[in-house]
Amino acid sequence: MNDNDILIRLRHLMKQSSQAKVDWEAVRTDSTIASLGFDSLTILDLVYDIQQEFRVEFEAEKLAGVRTVGDLIAFLKSCMGGAPGEKSAPRC
Question: Taking the domains of the chain in order of start, what are their residue ranges?
């Protein structure tokens, strides 16, 4: 899965989780998570949605250094690098 595929899926998830009025099609990799209406509480909903959508497992604390959508994409790509044929969700 490439960065653009992940970005498209993230836009959809973020739109569902955020209450902010955002032009979701304009969200780019340099968009900050905070500017998209996420705070410490709403990010937990997004974490759950991301885990379900991308079939990965991670603790919400792992996102502490994630500031931009691009950071989130890089994090997800590192999580999705599980072994081929692995049946359970990769854990980061």
Answer: 3-79
Q: H helices within the chain, ranges in order? A: 3-17, 42-54, 69-79
CA dist 54 and 77 (Å) reads: 10
Fold type of domain 3-79: 1.10.1200
Mean pLDDT for the chain overall: 88
Q: For CA atoms 60, 66, 68, 71, give the dihedral sign.
A: negative
User: In whole angstroms, how far apart are CA 34 and each of 31, 38, 70, 81, 87?
Assistant: 9, 5, 13, 27, 34
Q: Tens digits of per-residue pLDDT, 47-80?
A: 999 999 999 999 988 888 899 999 999 999 999 8
pTM recorded for the entire structure: 0.86
Q: Which of 23, 24, 59, 29 is nearest to 44 (CA)?
A: 59
